[in-house]
Amino acid sequence: MIGKLARLLAFLAVSGIASTAAAQGSSAARIPAVEVVATKVPEAPHDVPASIEVISGQDLRARGATTLRDALTLATGVSIAPGGDAGPASAVPEMWGLREFDAFLLVVDGTPWGGAFNPAIATLSMRDVERVEILRGPAPVTYGATSFVGVIHVVHKDAAEQARYLSASGGRFGSGSLGADFATPFLTKWSARLSADLDKQGFADDRTTYSRGHALWRASRTDGDTRRWLTADLNILNQEPASPHPREGGGLSTATPLDANYNPSGAFIDETRVFVSGGFERPVAHDATWSGTASYTHSAQRMFRGFLTDISNAANNATGFRENIDINDLYADTHIVWPVTSKVRALAGADVLFGGGEAKGATFTYTAPLAAASAPHVTEPSNLNLDSGSDRLFFGAYGSAEWRPSDWLTLSGGVRANLTRESRGEGAAVTHSRLSGQVGALISLWQHGQNHVRAFANLRSTFKPAAFDFSLAENEGVLDPETSTSAEGGLKVRVLDGAADFEASYFDMAMNNLVTSTVINNLPALANGGRTRFKGVELAADLRLAGSNFVHASYSAHDSKFVDYVWAFDGVPTQLAGKRFEMSARQLWSAGLSHAPDRGFVANASVNYVGERYLNKRNSALAPGYSTVDAGIGYRTARAEYRIDGRNLGDRRDAVAESEFGDAQYYRMTAMTVRAGVAIRY
Question: What's the maximum distance between 2 C-alpha atoms anywhere in the chain?
Answer without folding.
Answer: 75
